[in-house]
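For anyone still unconvinced, we reproduce a single protein record, the chain in one-letter code, the fold tokenised, and leave readers to judge:
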Amino acid sequence: MVEQKLVEDIVREVIKSMYQESAAAPAAAPAPAPGLSPERDYPLAAKRPELVKTPSGKPLTAITLEKVLNSEIGPDDVRITPQTLRMQAEIAEGVGRTQFAQNLRRAAELTAIPDNRILEIYNALRPYRSTKQELLDIAGEMETKYNARINASFVREAAEVYERRNRLKAE
């Protein structure tokens, strides 16, 4: 019994640290609270747990080892939500970590894209794997289908850079 409690405490701490350190599926979590303050609100899991929800809308406190073992909590319940990533970005900006904040915003966009598609896009972005038009099509898909405008911009930029450096697949 004591060992199970210890394991449950460890699992809870690991899950909390995942949310604290930042980073797919659209989530039902609330929109980021305006004016998050690093001093007042960080780490979110400890200081603002009511803002941290699973993609299925469960509160962070609902994640326990017992529920995992009983299959009440599944893999999708421990994925970070785009809302949490955007809140973490706001906090990162609050301490002057603008590049990290931008990374978190890109990650937030990517949560809407299915994992298998992310891997396909990753492979398409490797040198000599895609034509310029294929990369531009991927960017268009990211922008229109998934509303991932920041990431679409990066794919367009990659298409231009690959063209200049002769890294595109021969047509």
User: Anything to note?
Assistant: Residues 2-21 form the longest helix (20 residues). Residues 18-33 have pLDDT under 50 and may be disordered.
